[in-house]
Amino acid sequence: MMAQASSIEEIASFALGEGRNLGCSDVSVIAHKSNDSQVRFSNNTITLVNNVRNVTLSVYIAKDRKKIVGATYNPSEEGIKRFMRNILASCVALPPSEDYSPLPQGPFRYSSETNFDPKVADAPLVDYVKQAIDSGLNAGAKRVSGSLNTRTGERFILTTGGASGSDRASKLLLNVRAFADDNASGHGLSCTSYVSDFEPTKAGSTAGEYAKSSSSPKMLPEGKYNVVFTPTVVANIFPVAANASAFAIESGTSFLTEKIEQRIAVQTLRLEDHGVYPRGLGGGVFDAEGTPTRHTEIVGNGTFRSMLHNVTTAKKFGKKSTGNAGIISPEPITTEFGNGGISMHDMIRETVNGVFITNNWYTRYQNYRNGEYSTVPRDAAFRIENGELAGPLTGLRVSDSIPRQLNNIELISRERQWIQWWEVATPTLAPAMMIRDVQLTRAVGS
User: Fold this and answer.
1) Residue 148: helix, strand or coil by DSSP?
2) Distance from C-alpha of 258 to C-alpha of 296, rounded to nearest angstrom
3) For residue 6, what pLDDT band results from cuts at 50, 70 and 90?
4) Maximum pairwise Cα distance, the chain
5) How far apart are the C-alpha atoms of 140 and 203, rounded to whole Å?
6) CATH 3.30.2290.10: which residues of the chain?
7) pLDDT tens, 210-219?
8) What is the domain class of 8-210 according to CATH?
9) What is the C-alpha separation between 401 and 367, in angstroms, rounded?
């Protein structure tokens, strides 16, 4: 019998036993215990302080070549039994899967290296938010808003393939928007797994400085411009790692379809996926099938080197799993762009006629296969004339394609920044980039 307040190991073991008792040929169970805190702030005032503790049970089962995934939260013993019966009933109603592959066979050895800081759970979040607000105001903003989210979590996996292991991770994610007036705003981020690396003052001052500098923006004629993008924007407009998923490539929704071992970018571009990046942001030592995660070179010297695989896609392509399951679709875990040899400041100085875009949102794809997209600059954007910021801009839209931009990268910054927020789901270590001949149009209503 499972106790009412059970450990995640006991929860996972109980769920795996139920799956076996129900006759499932494959069962993968991940029990995840998390402690999530949030502080929201608006108009220089904290508006919400919240803390939630959850236990999540994620399950994959297969029977008679039929397979399904599901999740339940804060489960009791009876709740797990009911959940497993229900998910099996849904599974048997499905048609057999043409691409069924059994779970990988362990046991496996997992790395002990994780990005976990126990200090995150007791960090002075309200004080951090006050620092961000004060630094934004001191930099010239009149209003500062945003959110600080933290998580400490532990996972435990058991599978019928013999996988058994655990890992831990922690995160602090601060998103700051500062306003000098209704049409002048700036954005700042600080994302880290470690309290000692957290920079709320810098995030607030960056947002405040951008806001102060972007008052009275002007329109820009449509056309092609050399554009300097901050790491925040680069992490959003270049989802190359997600497009390297073998599932996306097989389904024809990736601009990397049929591009393996071909040049897809300038030679200076390097992109890698990591299970755990040393002193990086989050990550994990095993994937959803129990395969140990690892380092995978996705793009090297501008060439598409490797897809991301789970056991199913690996079998189809004659490869080995890269430890990136996603049961259904392989997915990146922690994305790292290589850096260059120039500062973002000097990158701007080397741009004679261009635009500097600090943030964006509403990225939408017109054609996934071709990588054609549009996105709207959010917050501060500036004209660049003869290497200087010549004035703020408004009403812009970037309308371009990822493949074209990857081949028009002119400069990559030396400094990189960890990025993760609701516009960038995968933790990404990104540099700033200057890209030639980016097509800029008018945003709707401008």
Assistant:
1) strand
2) 19
3) confident
4) 73
5) 14
6) 8-210
7) 999 999 999 9
8) alpha beta
9) 9
